[in-house]
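The following block was generated as part of the benchmark described in Methods. Ligand: zinc ion.
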Amino acid sequence: MVKKLLVLGIESSCDETGVALVQCEEGGGSEQVPSLLAHALYSQIEMHQAFGGVVPELASRDHIRRVIPLTREVLTEANCPLSDIDVVVYTRGPGLAGALLVGAGVACALGAALGKPVLGIHHLEGHLLSPFLGADPPKFPFVALLVSGGHTQLMRVDGVGRYLLLGESIDDAAGEAFDKSAKLMGLAYPGGPLLARMAEEGNPKAYALPRPLLHSGNLDFSFAGLKTAVLVQSQKMIASQGAGAFGDLPRIQQCDLAASTQAAIVDVLVKKSITALNETGLKRLVVAGGVGANRHLRAQLNDACGKRIIRVHYPELHLCTDNGAMIALAAAMRLQSGSQQASRNYAFDIKPRWPLDAL
Ligand code: KG4
Ligand code: ZN
């Protein structure tokens, strides 16, 4: 009989503390998708909002406060005694050093106390594999569009741990472009989802904003210039209306600029994703990361891929942004595929900067 493994995962790379319990089969290359038994999440967003962005020291301290209660919550929900856990895993990087140290320290201490092995996981691999927890899990190989707050990358994915970088942002990430534009519009941190909500009421063609690197001939992205264009456009609007601030403009104008900004970001993401699919000849696209929750991006990708008979897979909406489930899942898939083993060496390290294709 195949032995089942219970994997406890801890995510603490930025401003969300996530803990999850996943069950998988031990080694041997099983193709079974691991199952999520329970997960719990605490978002620090409210705490950081007062500062307009994540304050690393406050983030680390809050992870310390949350991680044990969240672990208890998950074990209670799954009706799983601590001693039943087989492997403890954590986000090893990339992310904020102090925040990563909390998850790594707790996971390794727990592993040592229980005498169970531990494993450090790449945060972006967690995002990348998160659609496997959805109702319509993908199959390898596929092209992945990773769009988070810190990264924008196109990867060719041939299996667990087999990632080839096809292109990435040379400056701001797509999530940053959303958040920085939203900040210019006076929206609270992180403004991406708020800007997206306003965009639904606006006209995406109202203002002509640049589509950086759209015709660059490669699969790289650049979003820093777009942010400047949004700033210039908003200043023009404020000056022409004699308004004091962007928020004083008529709401429809605010929504039009939000819609035009979102359309510029989404156009580039869709065009480059289609080029990556054409170049690789693959017929499957996986979208992951916080910006993957964006409804306009999903609609445009569904449309462009539908016309080309390409299947698109997304994570469940609540698993698009950071969470512990994706970290436990990535570890479970690594262990199950036999591509990596957990270790009883509890002298952990973290990797605040860590390219995914270096795995
Ligand atoms: O993947 P994630 O949780 O964080 C990183 O690992 O970096 O992504 C967070 C990012 C933020 O920039 C946030 O504004 C953006 O995802 N985001 C969105 C939406 N929901 C989250 N951006 C646009 N539209 C959304 N609906
Ligand atoms: Zn993330």
